[in-house]
Design brief:
Layout lengths: L1 E4 L5 E4 L2 E6 L16 E2 L6 E2 L7 E4 L4 E2 L8 E4 L3 E10 L2 E13 L2 E3 L10 E3 L2 H16 L5 E4 L1
Parallel strand pairs: 1-13, 11-12
Antiparallel strand pairs: 1-2, 2-3, 3-12, 4-5, 6-13, 7-8, 8-11, 9-10
């Protein structure tokens, strides 16, 4: 099964079904991230500014139950990643972009009580997320692969 999303779109599609979504990040490009709000790459923990879910075809993993305001009731993992610029920091604040790059991963799909994400695709309604989780679980039971295709 393929799940499709176009960067900047508020629609995620699978099996002819549309789900409202978003991928709002706060970073230096839009001026919405405070210089003291340091975010770190996963898994290396280097300071960077968040980026939206990367373009590509990404394999979906088994949904994981989550119980936080940032991710609940499930996180749908993918193998999506991108290489991002690392930032210099001092005294708990960003100072400037460095020449260093690092791999950032752990992009997925989830619901959140917050307006923004760190690059994941936010499913706007928990009911839609739960339905998508059931569809993905059924695919895995049949040994079908699931992909997120981002253009």
């Amino acid at each position: 099964m393929n799940i499709t999303w176009k960067q900047g779109s508020s629609e995620l599609w699978y099996n002819g079904i549309m789900i409202p979504c978003s991928c709002n990040v706060r970073n230096e490009l839009n001026g919405l991230r405070g210089m003291h709000e340091i975010t770190r790459t996963m898994p290396n923990g280097k300071p960077y500014m968040p980026r939206i879910f990367p373009i590509g075809t990404w394999k979906v993993g088994m949904p994981i139950p989550k119980y936080s305001a940032e991710m609940a009731p499930y996180f749908i993992p993918t193998n999506a990643f991108q290489v991002v610029p690392i930032w210099n920091t001092m005294l708990g604040s960003y100072t400037s972009m460095s020449d260093e790059m690092d791999k950032d991963e752990a992009y997925g799909l989830h619901f959140s009580e917050y307006k923004n994400t760190l690059g994941c695709i936010k499913i706007r309604n928990t009911v839609d997320l739960i339905e998508l989780v059931h569809v993905i679980q059924d695919c895995f039971k049949r040994k079908d692969e699931v992909y997120v295709i981002v253009s």
